[in-house]
Amino acid sequence: MHESPRDWWSCPGWAHMTRRQSLASMTGLFGMSGVANVTGLASATWMTGLAESLARAAEKSPEKRPKSLLILWLAGGPSQLETFDPHPGTKIGGDVKAIATTVPRLTIADTLPRTAEHMHRACLVRSVISKEGDHERATYNVKTGWRPEPTIVHPAIGAVLCHQQPSNLEIPRHISILAGQWPARGGYLGPAYDAFQMQDPDQPIPNLITYIDKPVFEKRVDSLLGTLEKEFRRGRLIDMDSQRTQHQAATSRALSMMNSSQLDAFDIKQEAADVRTRFGDTAFGRGCLAAIRLIERGVRCVEVELGGWDSHISNHELQSARCLDLDAALASTLNELAARDLLDDTVVFCGGEFGRTPQINPASGRDHWPHGFSVLLAGGNLRRGFVLGETSSAPDLQSEDPTRFTTSPVTIADLHATLLQALGVDYKQELQTPIGRPLRLSDGQVIGQLLT
Fold it and tell me: Cα-flanking dihedrals φ and ψ of residue 175, to 5°?
């Protein structure tokens, strides 16, 4: 695995140490003690054996800790040609140039210079295809892995992960930062799996602080629940969830969160000033830093949204402006996850609902394009420094072949199956929906090339 030129000074060496390295350094301390006696030699030998045994056991373990998912959602449809799949000097290339990255022979657009320094930590899929070209339908498709149906609401992938890997957190397990108009939903899994929505982490989360004395507050809560729950339960099954309603469960979770010490995970002001600066003085950058803190605490899925990519006019100017925010935050996210030893246990998805057309329209814009666009993946057991798929520099726009614009096309369903596999979730598992309909978590197939 390549190392970025900056990594050696951006954080202290101990921050990069694995369990094996830490144990080996402990062994070194014993070995360099200079005590030349049988007891010292036995201690050093015992520590060496212990270190190796523990390290091997950790490496053989299928899960050192539960996996998390970080989604950097680029709402509106980012242009693959102005981000991860430039074609400079061609009819479709536009005004961007290609720049080298830390992966040999891999270039990306010059709108993402800092991200280029961390591409050895990521893999690119340049040939994603879908059948949805409408914003709402395509967002649903990419977030859930399913096309919209009139009879069922599918859960977003973050909701699936939370369902499959429960936790005992007092803060939400599924969080959407800077949530737009179509946040991640629990679908048929129920509203308990909806993403908790918040805005700029620079501001405190509203409604979490009480302004009255604790005894008075508790008395009001007891009175409220006592009155309302009686009405909510009226007419319901006697044994339904031990006579609890969704209202009572949600209220209990909210009260637990209000009193939790885990709330400090949202507070990015606890980070060093230089760390906050690297992510950029933007809501998106702050959201990415907050996401890392939340994942450190054990949150299963965090989605951070960066909107404004819908460039039907003035494509180059709009895409370049969005990339300014994305570049600092994405590069810092990949670097910080690695520095905090989180990248192996966090799967990162960076992309939007579709791409932009190869041809530039009369308004100097690019329109919706689901026929071959890019997503960046990283972390977990996903391959690093790897690219899958290509798009044509001279696409035949008149052809009827659905794969005419790409090599190695990747469907949304297959992408989801691969992400679930990387997260340690059995994507073939079948669940019963509330109406008794059996439904697999994904109807795609794992793309083995993307996994180590």
Answer: -130, 140
| Three-state secondary structure of the chain | CCCCCCHHHHCCHHHHCCHHHHHHHHHHHHHCCCCCCHHHHHHHHHHHHHHHHHHHHHHHCCCCCCCEEEEEEECCCCCHHHCCCCCCCCCCCCCCCEEECCCCCCEEECCCHHHHCCHHHEEEEEEEECCCCCHHHHHHHHHHCCCCECCECCCCHHHHHHHHCCCCCCCCCEEEECCCCCCCCCHHHCHHHCCEEECCCCCCCCCCCCCCCHHHHHHHHHHHHHHHHHHHHCCCCCCHHHHCCHHHHHHHHHHHHHCCHHHHHHCHHHCCHHHHHHHCCCHHHHHHHHHHHHHHHCCCEEEEEECCCCCCCCHHHHHHHHHHHHHHHHHHHHHHHHHCCCHHHEEEEEECCCEECCCCCCCCCCCEECCCEEEEEEECCECCCEEECEECCCCCCCCCCCCCCEECCEEHHHHHHHHHHHCCCCCCCEEECCCCCEEECCCCCCCHHHEC
Encoded tokens for 405: 């614009």
User: The tokens 């939903």 sit on which residue?
Assistant: 185
Q: What residue spans define the domains of the chain?
A: 18-60, 68-204+265-450, 207-259
Amino acid identity, residue 220? R
Read off the pLDDT of residues 312-326 as tens digits, 9 standing for 90 and up.
999 999 999 999 999
Residue type at 372 in one-letter notation: G
Backbone phi and psi for residue 114, each to the nearest 5 degrees, phi listed first: -75, -35
Please tell me the total number of residues recorded for the chain in this structure: 452
Whole-prediction pTM: 0.80
What fold is seen in the domain 68-204+265-450?
A: Alkaline Phosphatase, subunit A (3.40.720)
Interval 403-445: pLDDT, tens: 678 999 999 999 999 999 999 999 999 999 988 999 999 999 9
**Hey, which residues does 305 pair with through a beta bridge?**
73
